[in-house]
Specification:
The chain has a domain at 49-73. The N and C termini lie far apart (68 Å). By secondary structure, the protein is mainly α. It is elongated and about 55 Å long. The chain has helices at 7-11, 14-20, 41-49, 52-65, 74-79.
Length: 81
């Protein structure tokens, strides 16, 4: 038997593994990324203290506030002088 072939039975499902570590598995369409953020130290500490879902909401609200969340139609932008 190849090494590690019993690992899925011992480890459990993704849901069981996530519950063991106190996290929620990603839903379909969700993703996670490691990114570097350049900001004042106090803001970074507050951002890191948030739960992952709250961090996602902060990013969503921030992009919407900056007008970067809306998808623009390239054909419309090319025709605008």
């Amino acid at each position: 038997m190849p090494r590690g072939s019993n690992l899925p039975q011992v480890r459990g499902s993704k849901e069981q593994l996530a519950a063991r570590f106190g996290v929620k598995p990603l839903e379909p369409g969700e993703g996670g990324r490691l990114v570097w953020i350049r900001a004042p130290q106090e803001l970074l500490e507050r951002f890191e203290a948030l739960k992952p879902l709250e961090r996602g909401e902060v990013v969503r609200v921030g992009l919407r506030a900056l007008g970067l969340l809306e998808v623009r139609d390239a054909a419309t932008d090319e025709q605008t002088p």
